[in-house]
Structures are given as structure tokens and as C-alpha cells.
Amino acid sequence: MFQQGAMSLARLLLIVPALVGSTVPDASCLAEGRDWEAWAGLGNRVCRGHTVDESDPLDYNVTSAPTLEECKAKCLEDPCKCKGVEYNSISGRCEVWHREAGISAWREPQVQGFTCQRFGWPAKYLIPLDGGAGRACRGDTETDNDDGYYRVEDVMHMEDCRARCVTAVDCKGIEFSGNRCEIWTRPILATKALTNFTCLRYEGPGSSFYVTTLAPILP
After folding, report:
1. What digits encode the pLDDT tens for the residues 153-186?
2. Which of 42, 122, 132, 219 is most deeply buried (CB count within 10 A of its CB)?
3. Mind listing the pLDDT tens digit for each residue in 195-218?
4. Are residues 179 and 129 located together in one domain of the fold?
5. Do residues 104 and 54 lie in contact, with contact meaning Cβ atoms separated by under 8 Å?
6. 135 and 81 both lie in a single domain
7. How does DSSP classify residue 19?
8. Residue 81 sits in a domain of what CATH number?
9. Residue 65 has what DSSP assignment?
């Protein structure tokens, strides 16, 4: 039900601007599968950038909203820039995050009532391929590694790499090694054994690898 509501909002974001003559958001920013994720857990959480101490005011806009859902709606007014929200249910303070690299850290503050949620490709669907650890991502075979399949970004840690996938317009998975992060934009169908590499494939809604569990049909 939650995802259906998000998709209904996405459709409205495309339809309403067309009716009033304003700019229509890029449909790719509202692609099937992009959704909200309480990636830091359901406890008291505030959003951060690269590290738990990074909270640059240039990374977000501060506003107010009576509910978390309305805070999210403010973020989705510009879905291509929406990376997530930090919301306080007591004060109504709403941070709309637009940091290009996304939200890759969080901390638990002393003040209560906070939640941090990311918008994009939910990281919970980044699944280790062939075990993940000690594997490098490949295309159709273990020798298929065209540099046109991915873009390379410098990152600080694995969660930083995962956050880059979450915020990307298109992400089929990630390969991580040290400070190197590959954001794959073509399906990952194979891996190659390589020490200190990790390959995670996106297998969420909108992906050809997504599998839904159907309820049994009762007689």
C-alpha cells in the first residue's frame, strides 16, 4: 500500500505541472522502483553526509511540515534533486536533502523525534552476487568489463558507494573496492573472483531480477 501511494504521488507530479503549464519533472526521476527507505532504522536518527559529523547546511533546505508524509511531499516537488528527508515529529522541522552524493551516514541525537529516510533505489535490494565478497561485477561473462557499463566515483566507504546507487537516475548495481565505486547502468549477469572487491546487484522493483512472493491460492 505504501508503494502504491508513492506511485500515485509520482503520477500526480507528472500530470499536475502539465495541466498548469509549469515544468514537468523528468520521468526517469520517478521510475518504477524508486521509493522511500528508512535505511538507518526506525529509531531516533538524523541524516548526515559522508560521516556522522557531516551536516553541511548547503546539502539541504529547512522547512516545516505537520507530518512526515508532507515533508516527503515537499522533497518530491523536485524529484530529480530529492535525496531524502530528515524530519522531527515533535517540532515539525523538515530538512529536504539535495546533496548530490546522497545520504550515507546518520547519528542518534539526544533530542528525540527524528527520522532519516532516503529516496531513490532502496539499498535493501542491493544483493551480493555470487556471494558478493571477493567478486568483481561483470556483464554477460567474467571477461565482459566494458567501461561503458558503469561510471566510477571516489567514495569513503561501502555505505557511501551504496548511497551513490540510491541517488543515481539509473543503477543496476555497484562494485566496491577501497575508495573506488562503480555505479553500473547495465544488468550485471556475471562476476569475476578478485580479492578486496565486492559486487552487489540491484534486484528491487523495476528490475528484471525482482521476484514477488505470491500468496497461495486457496481452494
Report:
1. 999 999 999 999 999 999 999 999 999 999 999 9
2. 122
3. 999 999 999 988 888 876 544 555
4. yes
5. no
6. no
7. H
8. 3.50.4.10
9. -
Structurally, the chain folds into a number of domains equal to 2
DSSP assignment of 101-168 equals T---EEE--SSS-EEEEEEES-GGGEEEEEEEEEEEEESSSTT---GGGEEEEE-SSHHHHHHHHHHS
> Do 37 and 79 belong together in one domain?
yes
- Which one of 120, 136, 170 terminates a domain? 120
Own/partner long-range contacts of 94-97 (Cβ < 8 Å, ≥24 apart): 94/62, 94/63, 94/64, 94/65, 94/70, 95/47, 95/60, 95/61, 95/62, 96/60, 96/61, 96/62, 96/63, 96/71, 97/47, 97/59, 97/60
Residue 114 shares a structural domain with residue 138: no
Q: Answer yes or no: are the C-beta atoms of 104 and 165 closer than 8 Å.
A: no
pLDDT tens digits, one per residue of 119-144? 999 999 999 999 999 999 999 999 99
**Would you call 205 helix, strand, or coil by DSSP?**
coil
pTM: 0.81
Strand order in the sheet with 126-138: 126-138, 190-202, 173-177, 180-184, 150-154
Domain of residue 109: give its range.
Answer: 2-120
